[in-house]
Design brief:
With 232 residues, the chain is of the alpha+beta class. The protein contains 4 helices and 14 strands. The chain has a single domain, classed as Umud Fragment, subunit A. The strands form 3 sheets. Strands 1, 2, 5, 6, 11, 12, 13 and 14 form an 8-stranded antiparallel sheet that branches. Strands 9-8-7-10 form a 4-stranded antiparallel sheet.
């Protein structure tokens, strides 16, 4: 069955003009395009994260909102994966890093999939690169038997049991190929490579670059002085 048109619409079609889209359809198309662009940006370019714990103090505080560059080390390529949503395992896709330019440097703050549960994202600082020998002696980091002169680490106490021992001494540990050794800046209270091992480079999502928002939940106020800070 054909679709009837009014005389006015028929005249426009005959004159080579396209009928105008309905307002609702235009809105729907704009929303779909925006969602697709947002997905592309989030997957391949930049992703936002919120800091939930104090393991990276004083570099990053609880309530900091950061942007992570997913192009710092290479291209993020999608691949099929299974993820958990509300307790159910469903097919989806995740990205894997294809390193095509630059390289990961010691001291970079990176976001990665936690090896113990790939549905979770962690943020830590790179301490050891592939082949490096990492050691902690009297709370000081040594890489390849040389002391790493860094100003990021803090020791605020509060560790207990095994944490006390590994916040004082660890290793030596040789980082496997295609992996990095990561630690939190809050050395006494960070669950990191000292406990669960190295991070595969392909599981790195990107490099933390800037704090775009910061909320202090204790004072219920914005930390204006942190907004716009470059993450080092």
């Amino acid at each position: 069955m054909g679709i009837e048109m009014t005389d006015k619409t028929e005249q426009k079609v005959k004159a080579g003009e396209k009928p105008k889209k309905g307002h609702a359809r235009e809105i729907a198309e704009a929303v779909v395009i925006a969602l697709v662009l947002a997905l592309i940006i989030r997957t391949f370019l930049i992703q936002a994260f919120k800091i939930p714990s104090g393991s990276m103090e004083d570099t990053l505080l609880v309530g900091d909102h950061i942007l992570v560059s997913k192009l710092s080390y290479g291209i993020q390529a999608p691949k099929p994966a299974m993820i958990k949503i509300m307790g159910a395992t469903v097919p989806f896709f995740e990205t894997t890093l294809i390193s095509t330019w630059g390289g990961i440097d010691r001291g970079d703050v990176v976001v990665f999939r936690f090896p113990g549960d790939r549905s979770k994202d962690y943020i830590k600082r790179v301490v050891g690169l592939p082949g490096d020998k990492v050691e902690l002696r009297d709370r000081r980091i040594y890489v390849n038997n040389e002391r790493w002169e860094e100003s990021f680490g803090v020791h605020k106490g509060g560790a207990y049991g095994e944490e006390v021992e590994r916040s004082v001494s660890f290793g030596p540990y040789t980082v496997p190929e295609n992996s990095v050794f990561v630690m939190g800046d809050n050395r006494d209270r960070s669950f990191d490579s000292r406990y669960w091992g190295p991070v595969p480079i392909n599981d790195i999502k990107g490099k933390a670059i800037i704090i775009y928002w910061s909320w202090n939940k204790d004072s219920h106020w914005v930390r204006f002085g942190r907004i716009g800070d470059i993450i080092k």
